[in-house]
């Protein structure tokens, strides 16, 4: 009787109440960056069949029978996400990025690399490690291993001049490996000094040193290589007993030279006859002997040039007589020696790093182009591609699961484009695509995508939903009146 109408009224209240929740959520997020609104699709529930339909008789004598059905209400069929483009607003913030067109940024949880999300929210920041991350710390994904190479010329005064090396193997490398996007420019990436003498082949570096004093053994440990040249030429012994200067040796020896000069200037004897050239020659001789294991019989060098020179410098007036010997030992310790390779190699590497960090170009600025390519601009005017922010796209965006904070999961149900149907759906890195290609949108730096919620449409939907709810409540009221009349029949 009126029970069916009562049930229909209740279903209307339930469904339209859910519809109001969706509308309310859309309106509440009208100012949320890159928020994607939703809409409710209603459908009727099952129907009660009063009369079953039947076809017309085959003899043509008669007509078909139409069905008589009574619906039993309404239900929420689906709540569909709306992923159309939102408007853009300029922020002038270099780490703010907006996608124009299809596609999502891929971000990864640093604590669990297998946990990845898609997001349209490009309000990123640079964390303390230099990674480009979301406000929650999820790392943006793309190609990240670009590096700049330099040919380094070192003059006779120890000044370093950096020239960009465009060799695609040992010099400037284009990004290719996929992973976390880093916007840090770490000059210590050149800590591994490699060149044609590296045992396992040429590696990628941020700085390529022309002096090549340090090589690597099969285990990857630094070793002094006594068989190769330094810089553009060989370090050779001249007929007059001096060492032919070659750019590069100052990296390791300039501290020793400076230390001896300082001690000469404090000498109480006739050390004025010890010139800077004499000091450089002595350091060069001992360095040649130490690094190249020079044969004393063939070269006349036995590693005693500094000791002999220091014999002309008297520092006993400064204190203990042992100070002279201690100073000689300290200065000789600045010269690489095969006798104590571990300490001297590390000291030399540290010296290389100090000089590099002091004189190598610094990062001045960076930019991100519409294809997501990150270009670093350095203080010497050179530039290189550090990495590339890439995007993922889906066959059915409505199947994505909202995780809050503009994050989406459910990649398997949504269907990652560019991934083989038989492959692991969780391999999201393999689905990364370059922005602006193959139907994927482009990236706008210094801008953010706004919410795609249309307030006028939402208010119109609110009115119709409210009226529907009111009508449903009237159904319940009228059904109750009818049932009351039925109850009153017994009186």
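-> sequence recovered:
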């Amino acid at each position: 009787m009126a029970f069916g109408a009562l049930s229909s009224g209740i279903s209307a209240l339930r469904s339209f109440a859910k519809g109001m929740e969706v509308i309310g959520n859309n309106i509440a997020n009208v100012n949320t960056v890159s928020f994607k609104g939703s809409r409710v699709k209603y459908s009727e529930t099952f129907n009660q069949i009063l009369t079953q339909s039947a076809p017309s008789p085959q003899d043509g004598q008669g007509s078909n029978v139409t069905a008589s059905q009574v619906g039993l209400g309404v239900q929420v069929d689906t709540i569909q996400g709306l992923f159309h483009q939102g408007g853009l607003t300029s922020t002038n913030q270099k780490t703010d990025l907006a996608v124009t067109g299809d596609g999502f940024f891929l971000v990864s949880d640093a604590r669990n690399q297998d946990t990845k999300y898609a997001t349209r929210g490009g309000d990123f920041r640079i964390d303390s490690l230099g990674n480009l991350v979301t406000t929650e710390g999820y790392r943006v994904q793309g190609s990240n291993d670009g590096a700049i190479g330099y040919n380094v010329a070192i003059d006779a005064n120890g000044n370093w001049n950096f020239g960009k090396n465009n060799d695609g193997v040992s010099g400037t490398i284009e990004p290719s490996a996929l992973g976390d996007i880093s916007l840090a420019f770490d000059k210590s990436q050149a800590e591994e000094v490699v060149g044609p003498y590296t045992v396992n082949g040429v590696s990628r570096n941020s700085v390529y040193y022309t002096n090549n004093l340090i090589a690597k053994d099969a285990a990857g440990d630094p070793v002094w290589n006594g068989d190769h040249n330094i810089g553009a030429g060989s370090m050779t012994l001249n007929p007059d007993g001096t060492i032919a200067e070659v750019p590069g040796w100052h990296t390791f020896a300039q501290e020793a030279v400076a230390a001896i000069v300082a001690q000469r200037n404090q000498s109480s004897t006739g050390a004025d006859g010890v010139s800077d050239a004499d000091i450089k020659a002595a350091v060069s001789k001992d360095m040649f002997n130490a690094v190249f294991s020079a044969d004393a019989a063939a070269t006349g060098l036995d590693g005693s040039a500094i000791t002999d020179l220091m014999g002309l410098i008297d520092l006993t007036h400064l204190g203990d007589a042992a100070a002279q010997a201690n100073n000689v030992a300290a200065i000789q310790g600045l010269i690489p020696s095969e006798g104590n390779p571990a300490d001297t190699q590390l000291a030399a590497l540290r010296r290389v790093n100090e000089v590099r960090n002091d004189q190598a170009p610094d990062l001045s600025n960076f930019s991100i182009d519409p294809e997501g390519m990150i270009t670093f601009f350095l203080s010497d005017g050179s530039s290189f591609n550090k990495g590339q922010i890439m995007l993922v796209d889906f066959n059915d965006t409505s199947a994505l699961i909202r995780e809050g904070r503009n994050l989406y999961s459910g990649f398997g149900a949504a269907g990652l484009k560019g991934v083989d149907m038989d492959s692991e759906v969780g391999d999201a890195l393999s689905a990364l695509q370059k922005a602006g290609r193959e139907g994927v949108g482009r990236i706008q730096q210094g801008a953010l995508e706004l919410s795609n919620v249309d307030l006028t449409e939402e208010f119109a939907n609110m009115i119709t939903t409210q009226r529907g709810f009111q009508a449903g409540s009237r159904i319940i009221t009228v059904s109750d009146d009818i049932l009351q009349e039925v109850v009153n029949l017994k009186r």
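The CA atoms of residues 463 and 469 lie 10 Å apart.
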